[in-house]
């Protein structure tokens, strides 16, 4: 049980993926951690998350004012600020960096902000461990398919984040720096499915950028599965990638609309978007191996190179390769209880997962 008795820091832990990650860390499926620390900037989201873990026998004051005595601890902090990162990392065994600016159009309009969170944040984690000799065992950088052959700012900054963590293994062999990379996470905050649900609830139209556009699709739990698989199996400098299905945006919209009389409106591609995402690039496929349900992209740096092994891919791994048909898309959404009438919404309209 690799997490038994460990102290774990999750940056960006109040995000959609972060909340599911924290819940599963606390479940003990990989061992019971001594402490899980959630670091984020938003006190409102931290408060909501804290209240969600309250027991009926525990008062609000006990949870809030005994914060640092709980197995789940909340810290207000920003990965952009070196001092705050140092304070959060001190004494922890594992860091999972889920803090990110991830909305593609937002990053296009504010590239400097994307650099600060996605790149400088990663640099601060590495610098804190190196300069203070913190005995951190593992750092997991949460990345995205948009980092493969990036054409938008979000992907570019995430690609740099991957390289920051990969190269950190050379100068600090005592800590294992690894990454995970995956596609669109179903029902995550700001993703297309909550948008479509909201548009359907208001009678439409459902806005589709380009009908033929394809995207890899994973559930939040599958995203966490990828992090856990990396913790168990990834070698220093490796990036773990799930072998995920893909679907067209049109089929996703049609499956969610069902037999309702709701218009589907094509709006055109947004700034920085690709028609098809790539999980493993053509350049990376030559040093990518298969590991169960995942691909492991091995680092290019010679200091981190492992024994040679046959490549598992002959070409880039694109969302256009194996696209689900309409029935397959509908079954996938149904399996994850994401069709209208199957989902639960918060008072603010956010999907509860």
Shape: globular
Give the CATH H-level superfamily: NAD(P)-binding Rossmann-like Domain
What is CATH's topology name?
Rossmann fold
Low-confidence stretches: 345-353
Question: Strand sequence of the main sheet, in spatial order?
Answer: 3-2-1-4-5-6-10-15-14
Average pLDDT, to the nearest integer? 89
Order of helices and strands: EHEHHEHEHHEHEEHEEHEEHEEEEEHEE
Q: Provide the CATH top-level class.
A: Alpha Beta
Total strands: the figure is 18
Structural class: alpha/beta
Estimate the strand proportion: 15-25%
**Largest sheet features:** 9 strands, mixed
The number of domains is 1
Describe what you observe in this structure.
There is one protein chain. The chain has 353 residues and is of the alpha/beta class. The protein has a single domain, classed as Rossmann fold. Helices cover 36% and strands 20% of the residues. The strands form 5 sheets. It has a 9-stranded mixed β-sheet with strand order 3-2-1-4-5-6-10-15-14, sandwiched between helices. The protein has a 3-stranded mixed β-sheet with strand order 7-9-11. Strand 5, helix 7 and strand 6 form a beta-alpha-beta unit. Helix 1 packs across helix 9. The C terminus is likely disordered.
In brief, what are we looking at here?
With 353 residues, this protein is of the alpha/beta class. Helix content is 36%, strand content 20%.
Helix/strand layout:
Layout: E1 7-11, H1 16-27, E2 35-40, H2 43-52, H3 60-65, E3 72-76, H4 82-89, E4 94-97, H5 104-109, H6 111-132, E5 138-144, H7 153-171, E6 176-182, E7 184-185, H8 192-201, E8 206-208, E9 214-218, H9 220-233, E10 239-242, E11 246-248, H10 249-257, E12 264-266, E13 278-280, E14 288-291, E15 294-297, E16 317-318, H11 326-335, E17 344-345, E18 351-352
Parallel strand pairs: 1-2, 1-4, 2-3, 4-5, 5-6, 6-10, 7-9, 8-12
Antiparallel strand pairs: 9-11, 10-15, 13-16, 14-15, 17-18
């Amino acid at each position: 049980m690799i997490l038994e008795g460990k102290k774990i820091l999750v940056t960006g832990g109040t995000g959609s993926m972060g909340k599911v990650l924290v819940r599963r860390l606390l479940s003990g499926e990989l061992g019971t951690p001594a402490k899980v620390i959630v670091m984020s900037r938003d006190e409102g989201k931290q408060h909501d998350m804290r209240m969600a873990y309250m027991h009926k026998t525990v008062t609000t004051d006990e949870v809030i004012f005994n914060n640092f005595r709980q197995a789940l601890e909340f810290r207000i902090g920003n990965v952009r600020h070196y001092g705050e990162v140092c304070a959060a990392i001190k004494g922890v065994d594992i860091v999972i960096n889920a803090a990110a600016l991830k909305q593609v159009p937002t990053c296009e309009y504010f590239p400097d902000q994307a650099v600060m969170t996605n790149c400088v944040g990663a640099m601060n984690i590495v610098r804190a461990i190196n300069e203070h000799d913190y005995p951190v065992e593992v750092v997991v950088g949460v990345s995205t398919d948009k980092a493969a052959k990036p054409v938008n700012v979000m992907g570019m900054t995430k690609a740099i984040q991957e390289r920051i963590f990969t190269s950190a293994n050379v100068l600090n062999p005592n800590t294992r720096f690894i990454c995970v990379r995956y596609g669109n996470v179903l029902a995550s905050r700001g993703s297309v499915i909550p948008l479509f649900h909201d548009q359907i609830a208001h009678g439409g139209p459902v806005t589709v950028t380009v009908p033929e556009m394809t995207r890899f699709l994973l559930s939040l739990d599958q995203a966490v599965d990828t992090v856990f698989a990396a913790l168990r199996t990834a070698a220093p400098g490796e990036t773990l990638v799930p072998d995920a299905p893909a679907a067209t945006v049109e089929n996703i919209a049609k499956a969610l609309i069902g037999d309702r009389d709701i218009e589907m409106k094509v709006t055109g591609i947004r700034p920085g978007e690709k028609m098809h995402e790539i999980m493993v690039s053509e350049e990376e496929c030559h040093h990518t191996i298969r590991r169960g349900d995942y691909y492991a992209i091995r680092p290019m740096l010679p200091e981190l190179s492992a024994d040679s092994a046959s490549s598992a891919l002959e070409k880039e791994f694109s969302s256009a390769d194996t696209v689900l048909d309409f029935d397959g898309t509908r079954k996938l959404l149904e399996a994850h209880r994401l069709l209208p009438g199957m989902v639960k919404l918060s008072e603010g309209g956010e999907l509860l997962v």
